[in-house]
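Hi U.,

Before I forget, here's the chain from the pilot set. I'm dumping it here mostly so it's searchable later in email.
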Amino acid sequence: MWTRRSVGPVLACLVATAGCGGSDSPSAQQSPDRSGPPVATSSPASQPSPVAPSTSAPPPEPLARAGKGCETAKAEPVTLQAPNGARLAGLRMGQGPRGVVLGHQAGGDVCDLFAYGAELAAKGYLVLAVDFESNGASDPVPPAVPGTSGTPVRPYADDLIAAVAHLRAAGATRVAVVGPSMGGTAAVVAGSRATPPVQAVVSLSGPATFGGMDAVAAAASGVPQLVVGSRSDPDVRKAELEAVHAAARGEGQSQILLLDGRLHGKQLLGNESVRSAVGALLEARLAENP
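Structure:
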């Protein structure tokens, strides 16, 4: 059963109290690694600041097809380039001006949300699922400049920004970014930095911080967001999700949906309440005249 409190003309703060089914335990998934896979580091002096690839640059050399672990016959394999020069493998499907970028969680790849992406494509969305650097069929992470804490900042938000640019070049005029677990953290950060801004982001169990990415700081950008999670998720504390939601700037710019149970990341899309909330956000924010 839902309780709903209005916080704005378009978006609302949603809290679900129904159980999620105890049989879907996140123990079968890899827990979110707050640092990510190892990468080499270099001194700031030897590593230039990443910049967006030039639109006149030649296309990157194609990578091996992404998604070998799932049925992707109806998707078009694409290779795009991240700002740091790494090649990203992706799968594109659907068509139209409403674009949706899909990330994945730790230890995953484009298969994490591919089935959901295929459903969106069938509803008239242009969808791109992408493998993050050092994951799936994408290139390894190049040497990175350490962040202020001395830990290399993971480039996953930049990977999603590159995917947003790809969809815009393919005809999308309004774009949302969706990610589970670490992909949710990256989605919120990407949403705060993409230029032009994206229309919405969805974080499914995204930690408050991951690999140098800070979703709490990014949420203050004012991009409409939906934060989803489970109250008993052993990998991401409820307080983290609430902090990302509370940091949003602007009346009605954030929704939070908390479920009873332990569902984590991509598992959440198996819950009808979650699918309904995500679908409603995409419909509202990606409409031509929202």
